[in-house]
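Morning. Coffee machine broken again, so started the prediction first thing and wrote up yesterday's gels while waiting. Chain of 231 residues, entered below exactly as on the submission form.
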Amino acid sequence: MARDYCRHNTDFEIVGGYLSPVSDQYKKPGLLAADHRIHMCTLGTEQSSTWLMVDPWEAVQSYQRTAVVLDHIDYEINTKLGGVTTADGEQRHVRILLLAGSDLIATMSEPGVWSEADLDHILGRYGTMIVERAGSDMAQAIDSLARWKHNIHLIHQLIQNDVSSTKVRLFLRRGLSVRYLLPTPVVDYIEENGLYMDDGPSASASSGAVAAEKEKGKEREKAATASSSKC
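Came back before lunch.
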């Protein structure tokens, strides 16, 4: 949907997309080990997409804030690789954007979850594409993010789809088939390794983001207090 949106509503040309699995230290109940998640993302992209890829960097780090992950991708593509080369040989800088669901973006409106500096870095420097999620009010979610509205692209679902990772895990715990909800190689891998059969409490991606960002906020406050004490 985001790719179609870009093609029909912007001047962007999509050259690639990365799935970035979170670290094992992401605060979310039932989170599988990083090696499983990296492998499933790889299986899900290598046979079904010509432009999606997996970047395992975030998954093997300690917990990294979203702003830091975007900086990492920007550095790898634009600094180390020098951007991309066009068909006529021109070297071009690549614009990096965060692709997120409206449920995750809604957490950016919650006080105390994301720091103002990180919001400005993510939405001001990079920008985001927000894909509508069933049951989420995108307009309400970005009310408090109006200062960055020029960098926020809202993508409405043309065909309603309420499939989510939370529902997929719930199906698996209940012994229901997910054969047509995920790429076949991913389903095979889940079944072969007996994954998600006892997943513990259900939790959405946005709830994990809230917990993780709050934890990082506490760490920043402790660091600031320590610095003040030293002064």
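The two ends are 51 Å apart (CA to CA). Going to sketch it on the whiteboard this afternoon.
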